[in-house]
């Protein structure tokens, strides 16, 4: 092999190693930024790992909102008509946040079963619901947790 061919081969190999390293770093970054979505029933069943960031969504359970004296902390429960998860949050809540409203909380599940949120989003479109919830409502098994204006009419 001549000197020129050896240099080209070394250059191509270095480019391939660099490209492979860049792809590996990109995949690691995507994996760290990925947030899974879980429902309260999956959390209650123990299918969700603790101390891992994810999103939980459902309805704010009626009568569950508590505001301790400092003004920024709030504790409430998120329900999916099957199970309920206690949530603790410190910060400013969205204007649409209220009991019976759909919310999505970002945060971590603690060992005691409480979800500590660092971000709360209120769902603004009340006409959408997950296919599982719609099927349960049609079967008549779980519309008791929904507010009266959102219950399925039979």
What report would you give on this structure?
It is a single chain. The protein has 154 residues and is an alpha/beta fold. It folds into two domains: 34 residues; 115 residues, OB fold (Dihydrolipoamide Acetyltransferase, E2P). Helix content is 29%, strand content 27%. Strands 2-3-4-6-5 form a five-stranded mixed barrel. The N and C termini lie far apart (81 Å). The relative contact order is 0.14.
Quick rundown:
The chain is of the alpha/beta class. The chain has helices at 3-33, 40-44, 131-139, and strands at residues 36-38, 53-60, 73-79, 84-90, 102-109, 115-122. The chain contains 3 helices and 6 strands; from the N terminus they run αβαβββββα.
List keywords for this structure.
3 helices; 2 domains; OB fold (Dihydrolipoamide Acetyltransferase, E2P); 29% helix; 154 residues
> Order of helices and strands, N to C?
HEHEEEEEH
Strand percentage, roughly? 25-35%
CATH architecture classification name of the largest domain: Beta Barrel
Structural class: alpha/beta
Total number of strands? 6
Q: Given the C-alpha coordinates, what overall shape results? A: elongated
Biggest beta-sheet profile: 5 strands, mixed, barrel
Strand order of the largest sheet: 2-3-4-6-5
Question: Which segments are poorly predicted (pLDDT under 50) over 5 or more consecutive residues?
Answer: none
Enter the CATH topology name of the largest domain.
OB fold (Dihydrolipoamide Acetyltransferase, E2P)
Per DSSP, the total helix count is: 3
Domain module count: 2
């Amino acid at each position: 092999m001549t000197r020129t061919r050896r240099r080209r081969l070394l250059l191509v190999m270095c480019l391939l190693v660099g490209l492979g390293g860049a792809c590996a770093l990109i995949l690691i970054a995507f994996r760290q930024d990925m947030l899974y979505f879980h429902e309260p029933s999956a959390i209650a069943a123990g299918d969700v790992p603790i101390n891992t960031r994810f999103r939980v969504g459902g309805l704010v359970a009626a009568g569950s909102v508590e505001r301790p004296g400092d003004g920024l902390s709030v504790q409430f429960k998120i329900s999916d008509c099957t199970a309920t998860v206690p949530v603790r949050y410190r910060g400013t809540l969205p204007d649409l946040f209220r009991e019976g409203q759909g919310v999505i909380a970002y945060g971590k599940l603690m060992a005691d079963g409480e979800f500590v949120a660092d971000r709360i989003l209120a769902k603004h479109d009340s006409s959408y619901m997950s296919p599982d919830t719609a099927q349960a409502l049609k079967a008549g098994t779980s519309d008791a947790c929904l507010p009266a204006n959102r219950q399925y009419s039979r």
